[in-house]
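Journal club side-thread
Mid-discussion, someone asked how the predicted structure for our own chain would compare to the paper's figures. Pasting it here so we can look after the session.
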Amino acid sequence: MSGNDPLRIAVLLSGNGTSLENLFEHIDAGHVPAEVVVVISSKPDAFGLERARRRGVPAVAVPRKSHSDVTAFNDALHAELAEYDVQLIALLGFLSLFQLRGKYEGRTINVHPALIPAFSGQGFYGKKVYDAVLAMGVKLTGATVHFTDDEYDHGPIILQEAVPVLEDDTHETLASRVTAVERRLVPEAIRLFAEGRIEIDGNHARIRRSSLPG
């Protein structure tokens, strides 16, 4: 960022786009000094694309099934991203592996509905995460926002918050509480990034205190 220019964000998603809508609302309220400049979906019928269109944000479908492998798929993703001068990529319910390719290290974040490294990795998403948590009988789970690397659900953790698992929880009731935490953590992580307050030190993302006046 330079001066007071808003942080330019690309959102990658695969589904309904409720996290995208939440981000829009926080930006509109002045809580996050950023703008979403493009939304890209791995599924052409994802409702998240319609959410973007309603706000006049470019909405692009790059169908995973139209590409022979993850490398070809990422070729197409990177070609689209190159058009928008993106400063941060937010993976908000994006179900494929995004390759950083030496360009987006330290500039790509993901949200995961568990306390990484628990219940994470390839195949752990959505309902599958909550079902696994309940089947294991753990007493705590939560949500994580982290910088990505070239593995699923891996990289320096920015923010993490625990959520209790109750005796009578179903995946729906557990998901509602975890999602509420995600709705707070994602905008907060983006705000910290926009303010230049996150430093990556190896596998650690360290958050600096904001400057004090005077």
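Post-session note: The two ends are 23 Å apart (CA to CA).
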